[in-house]
Amino acid sequence: MSGYRYTGEKLPPDEMKKRMHTSRNKMREQDQRARARNFEEVNLGYDAKTATKEAKRCLLCPTSPCVEGCPVHIKIPEFLQKVAEGKFIEALDVIMQDNVLPAITGRVCPQEIQCEGSCTQRKASGEAVGIGYLERFVADYERNSSRKCSIEIAPPTGKKVAIVGSGPGGLSAAADLARMGHEVHVFEALHKPGGVLVYGIPEFRLPKEIISYEIKRLESMGVKIHTNHLIGRIYTVDELLEEKGFGAVYLGIGAGLPRFMGIEGENLNGVYSANEYLTRSNLMKAYRFPKYDTPVMKGKNVAVIGGGNVAMDAVRTAVRLGANNAYLIYRRSREQMPARDEEVKHAEEEGVKFMFLTKPVRYIGDEQGWVRKMECIKMKLGEIDESGRRKAIPIEGTEFMLDIDIVVVSIGTGANPLLTGTTPGLETNKWGYIEVDEQLRTTKKGVFAGGDIVRGGATVILAMGDGRKAAKAMDEYLKTGEWE
Questions:
Q1: In this predicted model, what pLDDT tens digit does every residue of 95-140 receive, in sequence order?
Q2: Is the pTM value of this prediction over 0.85?
Q3: % of the chain residues with pLDDT over 70
């Protein structure tokens, strides 16, 4: 619970009624026919006039359920009121108190089930205030302006902290700890910082220049980022604590171990994990081959297995790489897909062919070992299972073949054991995820953890919420030395 209540301006009854009957302003988008063949951003953002109009739809309700719905508890009514007044930099100042990556979260957060899902306007009119769109707007406005938001940094404490992993959780923790006056070092295994933001999310959804800008902001706050540093190999966690002078360590290493279905033919050429497929395209720019020397197969008939946002990113990437047929194979119905509604809508507009209630049974290859066909079976929905969704059950006798030359498996990821396996005293659960308490303290003194390596697959903003919570607990530990 954030405990936040909006105590600012209250709307007169006539204005309240007017706002409750005002429709949501649409986001401008790149033409669907053009965008299906380029990697430029699909959503084009609000202009200042539209942003101001949209912000004026906020009902400024004192209970502020939108804040409770936000994992980092941005003071949403305050920032929306600033936008409504045309005070865009001041609006960003409000956001930055709780979220140091607004241009990113404004683009990739599932607002429809978080802040906007809790919006009173949504309950009143059926259309939530475009909180995510407005967060993105003010962040983009500042990036293109000579005026910058203000960030206060406390006097140096003389304490050093290590952040392992430069994904959204690690960056959020780093920002808060830097603000508190600590010396912060971020260790990233890859050659660019950003974690899943750079290797997992395509350019058409999150431009890399946005990530670079936000990371440079952190560096201006004094955060030191070390790329090509695989903790567990270059240094162990024990070495960071005992030899390198770090008073505390935060593990935000994600869960990047691909999962497969364990069916026949998964070892054929042309069968990718979503991690590899997207990393080749996003981080290593395979979509610009041969300008960049990382190839990725550009299949004509591509099947992506899964129903989450990563699956959407993969299948929409396949479209842009020239697939004649880009199939999204999902064992349940559309209503049960975990992907964002907006991503599904964009995929449909771009020509993705959805095959619901369908499950792969095996992959069939040619004499050279390349995948050529996929045998599928139709499914039906049964009783509700442990996930809270109706179980998908195969229907006997409904097998069929589909011609394919690329398969991308996107059914989730697991915990990579490299770091945990080199850290004595760090306990994990039966799935390999790190065990933590309510303060995100691990079983090893001085070591904290959050994000996917604790939760399993989650969202950018939930990882950021963990980073902020851990930063607060780390600051307390650095001050007191108390662990129990």
A1: 999 998 999 999 998 898 899 999 999 988 889 999 999 999 999 9
A2: yes
A3: 96
* Tens of pLDDT, residues 335-393: 889 899 899 999 999 999 999 999 999 999 999 999 999 999 999 999 888 777 788 99
pLDDT (average), residues 422-431: 91
* pLDDT range class, residue 10, cuts 50, 70, 90: confident
What's the average model confidence in pLDDT over 154-163? 96
3-state per-residue secondary structure call for the chain? CCCCCCCCCCCCHHHHHHHHCCCCCCCEECCHHHHCCCCCCCEEECCHHHHHHHHCCCCCCCCCHHHHHCCCCCCHHHHHHHHHCCCHHHHHHHHHCCCCCHHHHHHHCCHHHCCHHHCHHHHHHCCCCCHHHHHHHHHHHHHCCCCCCCCCCCCCCCCEEEEECCCHHHHHHHHHHHHCCCEEEEECCCCCCCCHHHHCCCCCCCCHHHHHHHHHHHHHCCCEEECCCCCCCCCCHHHHHHCCCCCEEEECCCCCEECCCCCECCCCECEEEHHHHHHHHHCCCHHHCCCCCCCCCCCCEEEEECCCHHHHHHHHHHHHCCCCEEEEECCCCHHHCCCCHHHHHHHHHCCCEEECCEEEEEEEECCCCEEEEEEEEEEEEEEECCCCCEEEEECCCCCEEEECCEEEECCCEECCHHHHCCCCCCCECCCCCECCCCCCECCCCCEEECCHHHHCCCCHHHHHHHHHHHHHHHHHHHHHCCCC
Residue range 390-397: mean pLDDT, rounded: 92
Write down the pLDDT at residue 115.
93
Q: What is the chain's mean pLDDT, rounded?
A: 91
What is the predicted pLDDT for the residue at 319? 93
- At position 204, the amino acid (one-letter code) is F
List, as own/partner pairs, every contact residues 433-442 make where C-beta atoms lie below 8 angstroms and the sequence separation is at least 24, other chains included. 433/255, 434/251, 439/469, 439/470, 439/473, 440/466, 440/469, 440/470, 440/473, 441/473, 441/477, 441/483, 442/251
Domains and CATH numbers, the chain: 13-143 (1.10.1060.10), 160-256+414-480 (3.50.50.60), 260-411 (3.50.50.60)
Listed residue (353, 306, 352, 302) closest to 323, CA to CA? 302
β 400-403/371-384 pair status: antiparallel
Bond before 290 cis per omega within 30 degrees: yes
Average pLDDT, integer, range 398-426: 92
CA-to-CA distance for 474 and 398, rounded, in angstroms?
A: 55
Q: Amino acid identity of 250?
A: Y
Report how far apart, in Å, the C-alpha atoms of 481 and of each of 96, 248, 249, 324, 329 are. Answer: 29, 10, 14, 60, 51
